[in-house]
Amino acid sequence: MVDITKRFVDVVANDKVSFSLFPNEVCALLGENGAGKTTLMNILFGYYLCDSGEIRIYGRIVRLGSPKDAIAHGISMIHQHFTLVPSQSVLENAMIGVEGGFFLDKKKARKRLLEIEKQFGLDLDPDAMAFTLTIGQQQKLEILKALYREAKILIMDEPTAVLAPIETRELFATLRTLVDNGRSVVFISHKLNEVMEISDRILVLREGKNVAERKKSETRVQELASLMVGREILESLQCSDSAAGNTVLQLKNLRVRNSKGVVALDGFSLDLREREIVGIAGVSGNGQTELSELLFGIRRPEEGSIVLDGKEVPGGSPSAMIRAGMARIPEDRISTGVCMDLSVMDNMILVDHCREPFSKLGLINGREIRSWVLDRVRDFQVKTDGVDAPVKSLSGGNLQKVILARELAGQPKIIIACQPTRGLDVGAMEYVHQAILRQKERGAGILLISDDLDEVLLLCDRVIVIYEGRIMGELCSDGIDRERIGLWMSGVA
Ligand SMILES: Nc1ncnc2c1ncn2[C@@H]1O[C@H](COP(=O)(O)OP(=O)(O)OP(=O)(O)O)[C@@H](O)[C@H]1O
Ligand SMILES: [Mg+2]
Fold first, then answer.
1. What's the whole-model pTM score?
2. How far is the CA of 375 from the centre of ligand 2 (A)?
3. Is the distance from the beta carbon of residue 395 to the nearest atom of ligand 1 less than 6 Å?
4. pLDDT tens across 414-438, in order?
């Protein structure tokens, strides 16, 4: 890709960016939230046409007017949000858009699929329905789909953001097999340790421009971080050491079923106090999602009780939770965190619109809202075309910042933060960690549900490990023993 420029109204997302990719390599694209990584790859995948610049594939200038053109040139892109058909099987999903004609030769397709699975070590049952697959398996299926389409170039946009550590290991093994077999991979991630582990070469973008390119062997994590944000990142967090106060959230003996009717939390009890951060650590899929849904008021407990600030609240009422002073940061920002079609301003005021000074006697005060939102956009450094822009035009990390600004700007008593820094660049992550600590100093009780053990250990006063919906154990921050936590996370008592 040579001198690629792409403008969206007022934003120059890519400004004369050049990018090359070679066979047998994993090249990482790094950059802050909104630096233009996804846009550049969307251009390569034919989603967007660039305003100027040219794309050459194996030396030939090409015009990629649609993903179909890109696929025809051997390019596949796996987005963060998968594009599988839930009600179809693995085999059917792989065949979509490839097997043309009137008759589908499923037998032939199955043979081919199994060959690919064998060659690349991707074992998936061709007859399994897509909706029964775990996130890691869904991602494998996306890779299989790409290989079925004979992809030579595989673009993966933040593939590890949704994976458990063990799934990440498997993905990296697959990516290695791919590049050893002559394919090329573009890997986008904010996790610098992963970038150092899997890539051969690293390209850094900042504000839509090329800033640096490094061979893996010639750089270190610290250098990459400062190249990205243009300053040193020093995550040494400071928080005044004040004792925790009264209990603000009490969960007693909860039993919760998930949407498939399986018990997801059992005998779950927990106390959270003022000025305290309690972390829930565990491999994803062990009840964390159901715990957050319960606390957000969108799932009811079968047994047990939830006591907020001394009062028992009924399950299943989001507004009761908000009224009791709870701020909620959901893990799935697209489906539950924002309304994609609403503007940045509407999304930021979603929770507070019905209180003074934003509304009085049922009338919205647009001026108050606008000035409050403008302040939050500035505080949280949300990169947007303006507060009236629809949130769907924001980059992934900036969407997350909109949610954080909405939830952390007030004076919540309790904060339930699920994967709060997923998809954020290192600079933004530092900012969010500080914002959480400021809330703690102010007196909030914070429950941090995160797959990122480093984040949990960095912020929390107490860590609770869950496994298959039960509490395996609890440690205080001065007695942290990583090995013990690791064992608990894998179910070893
Ligand atoms: N469809 C669109 N309409 C308007 N602006 C857009 C659109 N897509 C992207 N942008 C803007 O272009 C810029 C680059 O966005 P992009 O999604 O490429 O960033 P990114 O590097 O992938 O960031 P992140 O790490 O947060 O995912 C951002 O300022 C974003 O708001
Ligand atoms: Mg992106």
1. 0.81
2. 24
3. yes
4. 999 999 998 888 888 888 898 899 9
